[in-house]
Design a protein that fits this description.
Strand content of chain B: 35-45%
Mean pLDDT of chain B: 94
Largest interface: A-B, 47 and 40 residues
Helix content of chain A: 25-40%
Number of domains of chain A: 2
Number of strands of chain A: 22
Number of helices of chain B: 3
Oligomer: heterodimer
Strand content of chain A: 15-25%
Low-confidence stretches of chain B: none
Helix content of chain B: 10-25%
Distance between the termini of chain B: 33 Å
Radius of gyration of chain A: 23 Å
Mean pLDDT of chain A: 95
CATH topology of chain B: Nuclear Transport Factor 2, Chain: A
Radius of gyration of chain B: 17 Å
Low-confidence stretches of chain A: none
CATH class of the largest domain in chain A: Alpha Beta
CATH class of chain B: Alpha Beta
Shape of chain A: globular
CATH superfamily of the largest domain in chain A: Naphthalene 1,2-dioxygenase Alpha Subunit, Chain A, domain 1
Distance between the termini of chain A: 14 Å
Shape of chain B: globular
CATH architecture of chain B: Roll
Chain lengths: 444, 172
Amino acid sequence: MNEKSDRARLRDGTPLEDLVRIDDGLIAARVFTDPEIYELELERIFLRNWVAVAHETEIPNPGDYVTRWIGEDPVIVVRDKDGEVHILLNSCSHRGVEVCRASRGNVSQLVCPYHGFRYKLDGELASIPSHKEAYDGRLDKTKFHLHRARVGTYGGLIFGTWDAQAPPLEEYLGDMRWYLDLLLNRTEGGVEVVGSPHRWVVEANWKTGVDNFIGDGLHTFMAHRFAVELGVLPEDPLIGWFGYHISVGNGHGLAMVGAPERIPLPPYLGLPQELWPHFERSLTPEQRQVFEKTGTIHGSVFPNLSLLNTTTISTEEGVPRVPFLTLRVWIPRGPHRMEILSWFLVEKEGPDWYKDASRKNYERTFGMTGTFEEDDTDVWISLTRANKGAYARRHQVFNYEMGLHREPRPKAEWPGPGAAYYGDYCEANQRCFFQRWLQCMTEV
Amino acid sequence: MASAFLPPADPLYQQVIVFLYEEARLLDNWRLEEWLTLLADDIVYLMPVRITREKNRGSEFDEDLYHFEENLASLKTRIRRWETQFAWGENPPPRTRRFLSSILVERGDGEDELKVTSSLLLIRNRGDAPEVSFLSAERQDVIRQTPDGLRLARRVILPDQSVLGLESLFIL
């Protein structure tokens, strides 16, 4: 047996390729629930890809830090005195104790509470107590720095990877940058994170969140049907259909959804007019062309970052809807559990009334207590729970055929990069995610 | 030290206790329309995000982002949602039990207002899972005396967790 086929099989002999059949639109339930697959993901997905950890506006000043996660590895995201951002494994080089014990703050050095090893904010070992006596002055301090991840930023978003071979972040994001610009770089000042992210734990596999955000337009009518019942979304099973579903490649994808012609849509998601001149200056004509006709953007960046920019519903009778932007990471916490870490972001240039209303709409619909959020997490928990058993693991296969035979639209119709399909009732993006997933899981 | 807190024998203290117990009972029994009648029209209902900070490095509560940032209209929207058959997180309904203790009452800033702090333990169970999830918190309430009885005018919920262990939260 050669190395590749060995790596690509599970312990019971099942080839991973059998579980993810992209061309047939079939994905085994086991992919979402098998502990063996989960352990492999920590190595083959989370050690090899660029993982989003923070936004620059969370750590604006020298010494500012937040503690976050790359897979199950805890990291410190810190800005040093020269303004450079570092991502450090939160584990002392001596005995592995956490050198940072809060979730955010400001420090001048990182000090281990066990033996007092001190580190500079770039991870370099600065001093050891009684160095001369304890180590006869002979320990080479340059060898015992904190483990450093590579750092990349785009649109203020900070990514880290442990993989020295990984391509630069810009290349990794590829064409997804064109779309990320619509969210993060649509004004000169960009967006800023407001406050600290919502964080909560849900008994569902981390991929359930990606799978939904990257391209699931169909669930809107059923999972969020309360909004139809309340009369704030139209009684139309095609409600989430009208728009483009774009497989960007490399496991990234998104959808830009509008509305049927009979329902007039405000331009630019209903963002305040004060911001429109910024779009003129910051976006290309092609970007503005597609952005202007959009009411909702949802998508994911491989492996576990998702994004949503939408208006959802009015949360107060008589008060107009205001769009909000959230980014979130689905942090793996075991095969059947994830932590959701969800940021609210807003344009720095936004008028105060909009920042205020946007924040409340996010909190009330897609924050931890959000009415829409709750619908989603409920079904993700359910699908994780229902497919842990031996039978489901062996025989349950999920259908990902939606849009399998649809052709992407020509450039003349959709000027953005990627394969753009008309109609967000499509699973091309989910297949794009799992294709990349399979590639990571099987290649040596 | 002279305490500003009303003694338990004070009839006003006893009124407040009964008010809070009754409120908890309405919520535990999902009698949400009745619960709404206990709220003042100008109610402010907040639950800030908590973060872990080192000692003496400022408040752990984030004043920029909230789990709940509600008024009467937005609470009503949440309840209208719950009343549909399609609030999946509440159908089948979770079973909740609110335990209240350490209730302290003092005179508030307004003449007719009382400042009330209490400890809340919310136990939540769902479906056929034997496990429960829970949330413990301090509640800082302002309760107003009106001709129609006591009304909740302000509630700030200070959770004891920075990463919440419940998949969702409805009303505390």
